[in-house]
Amino acid sequence: MERTFVMIKPDGLQRGLVGRIIQRIEAKGLKIVAMKMRTIPTDVAEEHYVEHVEKPFFKDLVGFITSGPSVPMVVEGKGAIFEVRKMNGATNPTKAQPGTIRGDFGLDLGRNVIHGSDSPESAAREIALHFDESELSIYTRIDEAWLYE
Ligand code: IDP
Ligand code: MG
């Protein structure tokens, strides 16, 4: 089953949104197979956002993402990568639709509450960067038969 890397950013945690965000992921039918709370070290943040290394906002982005605890997770399900991106909404919360996490909970481009991988390649890279294989739990959710054929 498809997997994606999702992370509630430090603003989401500080603002007490962790529970509501996890609730949306669970209610969608997506399965959380790994989750922890961790302040992301600078070298990991730089590697995570390596595609943006030349951008003017890179330093601020890394500074922000390492500024306090985040909640990284691995989420599994049919079309998980696309479904999470859709639930997260547009990168800029002022452009994100109501009903999306960023549209409902954010106001600032740099503080947009949540991250989701943008492709299968990014998902595999980000999962390996933030988790050891041993941290993933393989299990069947009791509602799975009611989610998919
Ligand atoms: P994404 O998170 O929707 O995939 P990306 O373009 O990959 O968006 O950018 C990564 C993160 O960098 C965004 O989530 C946002 O927090 C931040 N970011 C993107 N563009 C800007 C910008 O122009 N100024 C400041 N921060 C930005
Ligand atoms: Mg991105």
UniProtKB/TrEMBL annotation:
Gene, per the UniProt record: ndk
Pfam family, one: NDK
Location of the active site: H115
HAMAP family: NDP_kinase (MF_00451)
Family, per entry: Belongs to the NDK family.
Subcellular localization, as worded in the UniProt entry: Cytoplasm
Named cofactor requirement(s): Mg(2+)
Residues reported in the UniProt entry to bind ATP: K9, F57, R85, T91, R102, N112
Name of the protein this chain belongs to: Nucleoside diphosphate kinase
Catalysed conversion reaction: a ribonucleoside 5'-diphosphate + ATP = a ribonucleoside 5'-triphosphate + ADP; a 2'-deoxyribonucleoside 5'-diphosphate + ATP = a 2'-deoxyribonucleoside 5'-triphosphate + ADP
Cited function: Major role in the synthesis of nucleoside triphosphates other than ATP. The ATP gamma phosphate is transferred to the NDP beta phosphate via a ping-pong mechanism, using a phosphorylated active-site intermediate.
Protein EC: 2.7.4.6
Keyword tags: ATP-binding, Cytoplasm, Kinase, Magnesium, Metal-binding, Nucleotide metabolism, Nucleotide-binding, Phosphoprotein, Transferase
A GO molecular function held by the record: nucleoside diphosphate kinase activity
InterPro entries linked: NDK-like_dom (IPR034907), NDK-like_dom_sf (IPR036850), Nucleoside_diP_kinase (IPR001564), Nucleoside_diP_kinase_AS (IPR023005)
Lineage: Archaea, Methanobacteriati, Methanobacteriota, Stenosarchaea group, Methanomicrobia
Domain of life of the organism encoding this protein: Archaea
Segments forming domain Nucleoside diphosphate kinase-like: 1-138
